[in-house]
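Feature request disguised as a bug report, sorry. It would help if multi-protein outputs had a clear separator. Right now it looks like this:
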Amino acid sequence: MAAAAVRRRREVDGRRPLTPSGRGADSSGGRRYDDHVRHLNLSPRGRGRREAAGEGGINGRIERARRLRRDQTDVERLLWSRLRNRQLEGWKFRRQVPVERFVVDFLCADARLVIELDGGQHTADVDAERMRMIESCGYFVIRFWNNDVLVNLDGVVLRIIEAVRANAPHPNPLPHGERE
């Protein structure tokens, strides 16, 4: 909103406009601009909420996902270059998305597909629990080793296309009650 419009609205309300000098429009005193601004939360982007939310809860998962998107690995960057911008038969993929209490590497929500990239830091027990939880949310999970992506990217992309096609909803579903 333009400054003049704000001044006019405040004059109509009977309030004096705020000025950086701390005086009203008629210089007879008024509300201080500094007093008004001091109470606003002007912290840098992303600060404040993160500290208040802590690491638990949805805000903690969102912040963690943002950090993972920013600090992605070379393998994630390579696969993302083939999945982004609907390059894969028009399917929309997202990266580092919170699902349940986990952050998955890649997600195609329309096909209910999750793609996980595994490096040396993964263990079978933790991965099995993670996969069970994600599948309980209705997603189909496929996993690739980092080495597979580096050595055979085209084969990995073909496997993803097969999984998307297999899990894709029918483009023209029958109305309720008319199923076979």
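(second protein starts here, but nothing in the output says so)
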Amino acid sequence: MEPGLKMPFARFTIMKVCPLQFESQFPPDLEAIKNYRLFDCHIGYDIASKLDGKLITVIRNPFDRIISLYYYWRELPDTTYGPGLAKRLTLEEFIECRDDLIILDAVNTQTWQIAFGTTLSARDSNAHLSPDQLLEKAIKNLEHFEVVGVTEAMPLVAMGIRSKLGLPVDAAMAHTNVTNSRPTLGEIPVALRDRIYSLVNVDLALYQHVLERYVAPNVLDANFAPPALAPVHSC
């Protein structure tokens, strides 16, 4: 799941929803948590595929995600880890920083999550892969998901969940972790967008694939306007 999206599956009681939120919290023996019916958390494919459930993922515009991450972290009261870094750095410095915390949450994060996982060990174990091989692995894994969508077209995600999983999900799915004050992509200087591109080049290719493979074919059937393609960096 894309962080910040809450899936309103009312049929699941709190006792059936896994309380774990991050991949680092999951035990090595997944049998201990397989009694849960819903996992709404930040985990990668390697763990999710072993939980014997139906997989749902929502990809976000990579450019927008980086800007949102920076300003969301700055709004949090925490002064350590990622939020602490965001508070100390300008947006330009944040984009140039290669601290492990920023690498995990900003550098092609969505592709790594779909291909393998959300930890540094997942990246280190597969560091030999080229960007094209990483993208190929993520695209191949998407074929095992029941529902694939983008945050810019959440009504289509809700439609997919209803039709493929039989769950009564409201098309107006609630967003949490919404940043109260941040610039739009159009307000970000082109030179800075070029620098962001270096962080999300593979994520952008994955996002475009999802738009073309999973979103566009459903647009006409749903009578829904397609989201704009992700902005391309300048040449």
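Even a blank line would do. Unrelated, but nice: The first strand starts at residue 56 and ends at 59.
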